[in-house]
Amino acid sequence: MRRSMLFLPGNTPNIIQNAEILGADAVILDLEDAVAPTEKDSARILVRNAMRYMGFGRCEVIVRINSIDTDFWRKDLDAIIPQRPSLIMPPKTATAEDVKTVDAYISELEEKLGMEKNAVGLIPLIETALGVENAFKIASASKRVKAIFLGGEDLTADLHCKRTKEGNEISYARARMVCAARAAGVEVYDTPFTDVNDDEGIYTDAEYAKSLGFTGKSAISPRHVKAINEVFSPSMKDIDYAYEVMEAIRIGKEQGKGAVALRGKMIDAPIVARAQQTIEMAVELGLGREA
Amino acid sequence: MNGKLVQSIREAIALSGLKSGMSISFHHHLRNGDYTLNRVMNEIAAMGIRELTLNASSIFDTHAPLEEHIRNHVVTKINTNYMSAALGHRISEGLMDAPVDFRTHGGRPRDIALGNTPIDVAFIAAPTADCAGNCSGKYGPSACGSLGYAFPDAMYAKKVIVITDNLVPYPMKGWSIPEIYVDYVVEVDAIGNPAGIVSGTTRITRDPVGLIMAETAVKVIQHSGLLQDGFSFQTGAGGASLAAASFLKDVMLRDGIRGSFASGGITGYLVDMLSAGCFESLMDVQCFDLKAVESIRTNPAHQEISAMQYASPAAASAVVDKLDVVILGATEVDTDFNVNVHTDSSGMIMGGSGGHSDTAAGAKLAMIIAPLFRARLPIVTDHVSCISTPGRDIDVLVTQRGVAVNPKNQELMLRLKDAGLPVIPIDELKTMAECITGKPNKPVRSGRTVANVIYRDGTLMDTIQSV
User: Fold this and answer.
1) What angle do CA B271, B272, B274 make, to 5 degrees?
2) What is the model's pTM?
3) Measured between beta carbons, which residues in chain A are less than 8 angstroms from residue B436?
4) B373–A222 C-beta distance less than 8 A
5) If you placed Cys at B166, which of B140, B149, B154, B321 could pair as Cys (CB 3.0 to 4.6 Å)?
6) Residue B21 to residue B28: CA distance in whole angstroms
7) In CATH, which of 3.40.50.2300, 3.40.228.10, 3.20.20.60, 2.60.40.640 is domain A4-232?
8) For the segment B350-405, what is each residue's pLDDT rounded down to a tens digit?
């Protein structure tokens, strides 16, 4: 379950050591934009050691490496892959080839380290116009790609427009990303809401992202995590409905019915799939019950 | 009208009969904006008076020039309740021959009243006064609100000098300390810098770890069984403590709980709670921000109290003994729940008890809020560098990774466990911290005592060694 993903600068030990208590389902330990070029090595060592020696509890660890047009990304992977991160986030991913470049190097490292093949997943960060247009190709470029991630800030710079709270300027990119990810069968995550002082705006932005089909949303401030988790958690009404769907299916099967209806509506495969997802989340959140 | 009003601080000192070897006192309501202590000490030094005992309720960084007076033997002994790092570090390095005696905000007035620490001349910086010495902190350009800590000095010193930058016609209205105690009055251009006296606003922390601890602290209070009508509460002005007050206000308003009083150093957050109907009254020994000053000036339910009424164990009764819950900080906590607020983890003096031990002893529930580690230092340790408040007076430690309940309070332990709070034995919290930070070496001490930590009842709680 990844409702919320919290970016944490890779060179801030005070924050990283508290990563697991900040409420996010995943943390993105950042070696890229949050870290000045002069601090790249110390951040890399800190993140490596934090992963090696610290527990992150139930919090999934993702590492944002430097982009493949820098001298840093291979060193980042050299240090991080042995720590078996759940996902690597390569930034500024614009083409399927970009994914394959990272994929190949990770494969090399996995082999060298005797790790299971494809143990480490990828969540390419798409933050250019070209990347958005190539979103489906990126999402389906490798088995490692588990999700794609929209970066709104760099994208608006590339689009020559201003980033706004309303986000009209990235609405096409958002819709395109969701469509590409779903077509490729991977998850999709939304760009952070960057006004850390706007406690109301984060709800609006997260609700909008959810309505478009995003799986979850990232944050650059721990203050936004609670709102994101709330928005992307199933409501009790959703959970009740999901159990009703599964019960109706069970009864339908018992009775040998081909088609099952609930409250006058036919229950088809996508509805069942969504109900199953909702129940899985409910169970993870401790809201599950005996079916 | 009388001969009390004199022309200068020097004239007042001369008239008071201050001589070498005597004892002088100051209060700390002007905090880091105080000009008065330094100005008086400079005059005393220029007059050639030496070997004084300085009894100051607190010493802030603005009082760093005291170092020179100590080197020149103008001051040879210090009694105080709090000393920030500027002078504290020098003391830790062995600046003084005689150890500093640290007391508590309740222990100081106790020892003054009992004659254990007699004061020859008290200097009271007063934001407003008249020529007879009636004075108050509520009015004037240097307003600081309550003058609570100055009351024992006024009442028990042999001579009392009021120093003001806002002299008003006799009789001033709304005085706090009456003329009956005052011998001389001096008008000066400024007693302090308003910017350092009180902050414009005190803000709750934005630190996510602080907010998590504050949320947990409020859950502990909710499930302690104490949060009901008539509830009484004290908290400090630290970021997480203020956040806890803010969250507590929401819970009290939501559940319609009307408390009795909040006490201690008062911030705008407690004023907001009073205004919202969370409490009937504020019992104010010291104001921390402009909102508190404005409130004590205008709202009769916001009451000034003396240090004796606040916390003295020698008083017939005191506010701290009526507290339900107090939230306190710590630089270190050990596995016996002993708390250090005097030194940092290196053993350098950078604080003091203030009202810590007094409120912990008096309150039904004494809660420490502290992160499990600061930078790379674990805060929960085997043994604190200095015992400021004994573990027997502490009920619960709230950290960002769990809540440790003192085993002496089994009822609280059960209540919190039943409520599903993350109750963890304190040894486990210590291990958890050390897993992340490693176990730091203890600082090397010389064995020379630079300070005594005197508990509120006058007994020696601990000593601080030079570093």
Assistant:
1) 65
2) 0.86
3) 17, 53-54
4) no
5) B140
6) 23
7) 3.20.20.60
8) 999 999 999 999 999 999 999 998 877 889 999 999 999 999 999 999 999 999 99
